[in-house]
């Protein structure tokens, strides 16, 4: 979660896709004007990103440049946005602390959340009925906990309480787990998972690096996450970070795929392609 950012003088923003079979990365778009963040990947081969408080779409192969989605009546958006299962609608976190639902074609968007706390979206259940988000009260950014809410709104249900902070809750493709990162085990962010009813919490990574934003592939057989150097606090921008791959649920044998200048905005939300062969990410070389 972050408010709209801008590129520094001399800094670039590069949108890339990574092929986990060939183990190769391809830059599909470079910008020196807009700082793009947090790709999603649609069923029809589009990347969805945020930048300058707007939502953008572009061809995943880079054959067409980013285009701003023409929403009406929305506050500035941040980098927490997740596709609905139909891949035609999207849930959006805005800088006013609320979650909205809109069509990728644009137009009006409907607010889902109430005024109980700030809401930063990260997950949509496979059946589309429930959203998972980070809840922040009184701008206490270091005490975020996880919540769920019906995709049409209503009362929120706590998923985690106390300790933390927790972030990045995302449903497994079968809906059986919610994956997230938390400091509650070791005092620095590690990957964990919990049942959708809040039970059965398990720690998955056990290292000195600071690990954020686990994203499972559509088949659930791979996961990718963002890994910061030891001692990093929070999930800042513009550090030397790694993207790590987990195969067949073996989290203790994660493989480093890419080292890059990034962090915040690189891979905040799920960016796997529908076939599970590629994922998208953003880096920010200066």
From TrEMBL:
Checking Pfam families in the record gives: PD40 (PF07676)
| InterPro entries from the UniProt entry | 6-blade_b-propeller_TolB-like (IPR011042), WD40 (IPR011659)
Signal peptide positions (record): none
What family does this chain come from, according to its entry?
A: Belongs to the TolB family.
This protein is called what? WD40-like Beta Propeller Repeat
Species: Actinoplanes derwentensis
């Amino acid at each position: 979660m972050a408010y709209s950012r801008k590129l520094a003088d001399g800094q670039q923003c590069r949108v890339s896709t990574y092929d986990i079979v060939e183990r190769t990365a391809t830059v599909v778009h470079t910008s020196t004007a807009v700082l793009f963040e947090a790709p999603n990947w649609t069923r029809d081969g589009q990347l969805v990103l945020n930048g300058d408080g707007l939502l953008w779409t572009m061809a995943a192969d880079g054959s067409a440049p980013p285009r701003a989605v023409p929403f009406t009546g929305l506050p500035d958006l941040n980098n927490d946005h997740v596709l609905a299962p139909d891949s035609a609608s999207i849930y959006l976190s805005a800088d006013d602390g609320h979650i909205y639902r809109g069509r990728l074609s644009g137009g009006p968007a409907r607010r889902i959340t109430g005024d109980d706390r700030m809401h930063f979206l990260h997950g949509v259940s496979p059946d589309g009925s429930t959203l998972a988000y980070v809840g922040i009260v009184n701008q206490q950014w270091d005490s975020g906990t996880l919540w769920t809410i019906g995709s049409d709104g209503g009362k929120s249900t706590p998923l985690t309480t106390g300790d933390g902070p927790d972030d990045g809750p995302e449903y497994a493709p079968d809906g059986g787990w919610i994956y997230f990162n938390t400091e509650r085990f070791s005092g620095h962010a590690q990957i964990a998972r919990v049942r959708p009813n809040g039970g059965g919490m398990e720690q998955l990574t056990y290292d000195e690096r600071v690990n954020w934003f686990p994203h499972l592939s559509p088949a659930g057989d791979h996961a990718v996450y963002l890994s910061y150097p030891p001692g990093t606090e929070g999930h800042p921008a513009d550090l030397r970070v790694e993207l790590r791959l987990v195969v067949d649920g073996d989290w203790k044998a994660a493989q480093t795929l890419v080292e890059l200048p990034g962090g915040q905005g690189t891979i905040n939300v799920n960016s796997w392609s529908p076939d599970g062969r590629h994922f998208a990410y953003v880096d920010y070389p200066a």
